[in-house]
Amino acid sequence: MDLLQHLEEFATGVTRVEEEPTSDDLLRWHRLFGYSAPDALDVIAEIRENINGRKLSEEKWDLLKVGKEAEGYDRETYEHQLHLWSTKSSARLHPSHLMRSRDTATYIFQLDRPFKDIKTLQRAVGVSAELRRGQGEEGETTDFACVDSTVKLAIEDWLVTQSPPITHRPTFIRLSLASKDLSDTSSHPTLGIESSLPQHRAHEASHSFAPTQTEYPVWYFFYGTLMDPHTLQGCISIADLPVMTSATITGGTLRTWGRKYKALVDGPPTGEVDGYAYRVESFEQEEYLRFRETDVYEVVRCRVALNDGARGQEAVQGLTFRFRCQDKLDVD
After folding, report:
1. DSSP code string of 216-229
2. In whole angstroms, what separates CA 93 from the centre of its chain?
3. Which of 134, 158, 247, 294 is packed most tightly, with the most Cβ within 10 A?
4. Calpha distance 221→306 (Å, rounded)
5. 8 Å CB contact between 67 and 157
């Protein structure tokens, strides 16, 4: 940065006319950072008194303005966000990323500059990511990072704070697959149960909830087109027709969306849904299913009653796909 540019940016910070914070301003600070009104006023006063604090140039704010205002920022709150990232170890997600994230999507990007591997990403931004291996454009083995929407926001915010600017940016590809986030300390999420309540949490450290996040093989209950063995065979890419078992689950009810798709939602404790169950053998098979169902569904625990004619009924802990977009359900 040359001297003239430095003086211009310094003048920008000194001469900016600041108005008294309004109630809308205080609400913005609370929504983004969780500050109470008195705390927000103190922070605003401190920022305005510190003329040497981190200030965005007019040119940089003009580039960022549309996108950041869409996320709920104004210029002052975004400058404060940058300050937090530079002074509070970049090694953790700020709560605002959780608040700004409106989707449960998963993203992948190729590990290249500026993040050559997962460890480089963790050291720089302080976030974790799942390593995936695939093929590059020329068929070579390529490493990818798989992240959720909150981590994606953290990476994007870290990139804009770097000086000199980083010109090579990762290209995020949105993966539309059903979310799966099974708790180790409670039964959350479980069909038909508000599983975050205390009575559904572990009372002993040794207690475990089944199925676990990485448990395979695992029973899956199907209630729509996946009840057809040929459809399931094509979906999970297996050589032989899958052996499926007639089954029933409780705690749910079936609705429709898009006028043709079945949607399993929470129902009364006695509500029963009939379908078929299949033991999914691996993470790869499960991921095929999650991609097929897309992110309008989520994987949840359920109790599956297997209706085996030879052995009678057997109850197992399994998983199923619950519809998560209530606003898309058809009106009965």
Report:
1. SSEEEEE-SGGGSH
2. 13
3. 247
4. 10
5. no
